[in-house]
Amino acid sequence: MSIKLYDLVGKDHSRPFSPHCWKVRMALAHKNLSYETVPTSFTEVRAVEGGASKIIPVIRDGETVVSDSFAIALYLEHTYPDRPTLFGGQGGESMARFIERWSLATIHPFIGSAVLMDIHECLEPVDQAHFRKTREARFNKPLEEVPVGRDEKLEAFRASLAPLRSTLAEQPFIGGVTPLFCDYIVFGALQWARVVSTYGFLASDDPVAVWFERCLALHEGIGASVPAAA
């Protein structure tokens, strides 16, 4: 029996966009595990697995239900130790925790605000209403005002990626010579932007952009199989 992955989508179910769900997609492919996706909208999340979680991704593997992308990665690592490793040991798990905190603090805030209207436009009307209500409460301003000024902030965002850029000058992946879950953490954030928006977050010659293209081609091109926003 294949693993079931509840995956966040908008109007077009063929274009999943959640950064956290993409982490899990890549982790499942990395482990060579069979899985099926269940397209899930924002307003359907609370009904997933009888209300198992307020957020997705959520997976069901037989009788086991797991939520949260990092918890899912740990579950896959320890449940399927004979498959390719996502962490390379306890030290890799700790390192991935740091990368996740760094990504959530550095990458997600800018991307999340810059593409907010793009996400809104991807959704069905009922989900647009939910999205507007929850995000306006989070940002304490009208949805349309949140991306204002993104061009002025872009240079600072690109500069904030300097630690990643210098790391990739020394090795092809964050995980070293081959990708690990730490790569999928950052990949998920940039894939989120790629799928929902045409905004240019990275210069084409940026080593981070070159690494991202490398990640898009991993696992038979699972990332590239969803076209970029046009």
TrEMBL record:
Highest taxon, organism lineage: Bacteria
Domain GST N-terminal: 8-84
Membrane spanning stretches: none
Signal peptide positions on this chain: none
One Pfam family per UniProt: GST_N_3
Coiled coil: none
Name of the protein this chain belongs to: Glutathione S-transferase family protein
